[in-house]
Specification:
The protein is an all-beta fold. It is built from no helices and 13 strands. The strands form four sheets. Strands 4-5-6-7 form a four-stranded antiparallel β-sheet, with no helix packed on it. A four-stranded antiparallel β-sheet has the order 8-9-10-11, with no helix packed on it. It has a three-stranded antiparallel β-sheet with strand order 1-2-3, with no helix packed on it.
Length: 140
């Protein structure tokens, strides 16, 4: 993840589970805000004053630390699965089940690559000094 020398606001811990996202006061555990984003697992990245959350079908943007829902965009493709997300500069990369999409920070789709003929599966994403490992919970 990108690191800078300026002090960041780290007062709110963002947690996701059961299709929900919440902001929790890191000092006393109070829930400050909460939304239902869908079902299944959610990938979350806090980057500056924005929190991006990818469900199996949508990319959401929330203000950080306040939690205001600023918008969402549909993920292209047809194979929903737990996403992997990497943010670098003005690009947000979201990978799910063998498909990769690139969005701008204002949630506009820039491009989509379904990697045709290469199969389905979890994807890890990496650029120099910035990597996200795929996380596949497996099957029951």
């Amino acid at each position: 993840m990108y690191r800078s020398s300026h002090k960041k606001n780290r007062a709110v811990l963002v947690v996701t589970f059961n299709g929900r996202i919440a902001g929790v006061d890191r000092h006393d555990g109070r829930i400050l805000w909460e939304y239902t984003l869908g079902h299944g697992l959610i990938e979350v990245v806090v980057d500056g004053d924005r929190c991006y959350a990818a469900t199996m079908s949508r990319l959401h943007c929330l203000a950080y630390p306040g939690g205001t829902h600023l918008g969402s965009a549909a993920l292209p493709g047809g194979y929903p699965r737990r996403p992997t997300m990497l943010i670098d500069g003005d690009q947000i990369f979201v990978a799910t089940n063998g498909e990769l999409a690139c969005f701008s920070r204002d949630l506009q789709l820039r491009w989509f690559n379904p990697f045709p003929g290469r199969g389905l599966g979890s994807m890890a994403l990496a650029l120099p000094d910035n990597a996200r490992q795929a996380d596949d919970p497996g099957s029951d």
